[in-house]
Amino acid sequence: MRKTTKLALAYIALAGAVGGAAYAENLDSANVRERTMMRLDKAMKDNDGKITFDQFSDVMDARLKKLVADNGGKLTVAQLADALEKARFERMARRIIARYDSKGDGTLTSDDIIGREKKLFAMLDKNNDGKIEKGELPNDGRDDRQWDGEGNEGGVQ
After folding, report:
1. What does the pLDDT read at residue 90?
2. What digits encode the pLDDT tens for the residues 33-61?
3. What residue spans carry the region label Disordered (predicted)?
C-alpha cells in the first residue's frame, strides 16, 4: 500500500476515533488526536509496525463499545447523555476532592473545607488584621464594579 493511501486511511480512522474518544475524555480535539496517535503508535510498535483492523479496534475507545454492549447492543440518545453527564460530574467531583482533600485520602471532610477556607481567607486578608475589607478583594478587571461587602456588586464608592 502506498504511503499516501496509508496516511489517508489513518486520518479517516483517526477522525472516527476522535469522535468516540472525545465524548469520554472531554478534552480538546488536539489532545484527543495526540492521545489516539500515541495509542496507535504503541500498537504499531507492539505488532512489528503493522496492525490489523481487530488490533486497531482494540486501541479505540472501549468505553463507548462497553456502553453499547451494556445496553443490549443499542445506545439511545438519552442513555448516551446520561453516561456523558455522569462522566462529567465524576470529573468535576475528582477535581473538587483533589482541591480540598488535605490528607490525600480521596475523601472530603468538614475539616478539609474549613482548612481551605482559612487559606483563602488568609490570602484575601492582605493586611493580616483578621478581616477582609472591600479594598482587599480582587478586582476581576471586567469593569469598575466591586463587591459592596454585602454580597452584591455595585459601583465604586
Report:
1. 93
2. 788 888 888 888 888 888 888 888 887 77
3. 129-157
DSSP 8-state class, residue 151: S
The answer to whether 24 touches 10, Cβ cutoff 8 Å, is: no
Q: What would the grid cell of residue 148 be?
A: 459592596
Let me know: does 27 contact 20? Beta carbons within 8 Å: no
22-36 b/e (C-beta count within 10 Å ≥ 16 → b): bbbbeeeeeebbeeb
pTM of this structure: 0.48
Q: 11: number of CA atoms within 13 Å, CB side?
A: 5
Q: How is residue 78 written as a grid cell? A: 438519552
Residue of 28 and 64 predicted with greater confidence? 64
**Taking CA 130 as the corner, what is the angle to CA 119 and CA 110, rounded to the nearest 5 degrees?**
40
The full set of domain ranges for the chain reads 3-60
Write the single-letter amino acid at 77. Answer: V
Give the pLDDT band of residue 140 (cuts 50, 70, 90): low
